[in-house]
From TrEMBL:
Keyword Transferase: no
Subcellular location: Cell inner membrane
Boundaries of every TRAP C4-dicarboxylate transport system permease DctM subunit domain copy: 5-413
Pfam families tied to this protein: DctM
Transmembrane segments: 45-64, 101-121, 133-157, 169-192, 213-232, 238-254, 274-291, 311-328, 335-355, 361-385, 397-419
Keywords in alphabetical order: Cell inner membrane, Cell membrane, Membrane, Transmembrane, Transmembrane helix
Recorded GO MF terms: transmembrane transporter activity
Name used for this protein in its record: TRAP transporter large permease subunit
Residues forming coiled coils: none
UniProt membrane topology term: Multi-pass membrane protein
Amino acid sequence: MIFLIICMLLLLILGVRIAYALGISSLLYIILFTDISPMVIAQQISAGSDSIVLLALPFFLLAGEIMNAGGITHRLIRFAMSLIGNIRGGLSFVVVITNMIMAAVSGAAIASGAAVGSVMIKSMEEKGYNKGFAGAINAAAATIGPVIPPSVGFIIYASVSNASVGKLFIAGIIPGIILGLGMMIFCYILSIRHNFPAGEKRNWNEVILSFKSAIWSLLMPVIIIGGIMSGAVTATEAGVIAVVYGLIVGIFIHRDISIKTLPAIFTNTAKQTARIMIVIACASAFGWIISREIEPSLFVENVLSVAGQKWIFMFVIIIIIIALGTFMEGGSIMIILTPLILPILLTLGIDIVHFGVMFQLAIMLGLITPPVGILLFVISGAGNIEIKDIIMNIWPFYLVILIVIITCAIFPETTLWLINTLGNNIS
């Protein structure tokens, strides 16, 4: 199994895409070290993408594409700016608030980071903000995307763990809000310390006008989350409703989407879905080999002998996830690790929904961890900022995410209270 992991790492170092690195290393291992037919890799790749839960994935990706094409980013930024008023460092608050709202539409960190960052970094630079800070807050705020529902990461985790997608969505609401509030607190502290410019005085006419412009966009999260929380729809059905709603708003109300632009929207969604699904499929084959080569009961026994208490195990596995997240795609990590750690979670009495939120938060921390944190490169490209300048300014927000992870680990109620309050209606 050492060959399997080393081969995958070497391929990544050589620049091979993560999906192909996982697939090629799996195939080589089967050919060189087992007497199993190589066809088993094709079978496992097929089985890995054959999950009813994953049906929700393309619908939420399509809903995000539709809303972005319909001018959602600019409307939300305008509305957030009108609310902030003359608070010092106001534009940094706008970045966080916009990403929190965008999170309830797209559910993807990279999409949110690119959409908001491409607009806000330039605006912040023009207003006199440090460019490195502008990049750092945009990168950090984008990590909220996959925590507040809907979340692509939660859908993938649910497909492997058999956890309820609806419960995972609801479980991410409070940690996502805490994450956003924590970042805004640090934004205010840093704004005072570095004397960042204050926003413009609040104009209530502009608040009303911008709210009217953004209200159809703001209703999207209400429909998605409200439908799931009430038990009226499943996560997949909510995704379908979001797509239909987005098309109606984009074509007939905002009129930013025309029939001619639909092929491009559908094509982009198909490409995104294909990229994610091929990673999921190849990671499934890779994970199957690891699960086959490791005796589950022996693995559980060895882990528990080192980390026999739930808190120790939680913090050890979080460190491992953060380390893997610096160079691997989050979905791959979930698919490879989840089958291994599920028996341990059950043995230690750790709720799989609670752990799913912890898993997602840890992956988000990996996305902004050098040297290979993907979000650092996305924001660097969107704002034409040196990676080192973002890294020098991002550590306070790294600390915020770490505090939220530790808080959620110590107090499971942060993820489970809302679910317990709503009862068993969530599917």
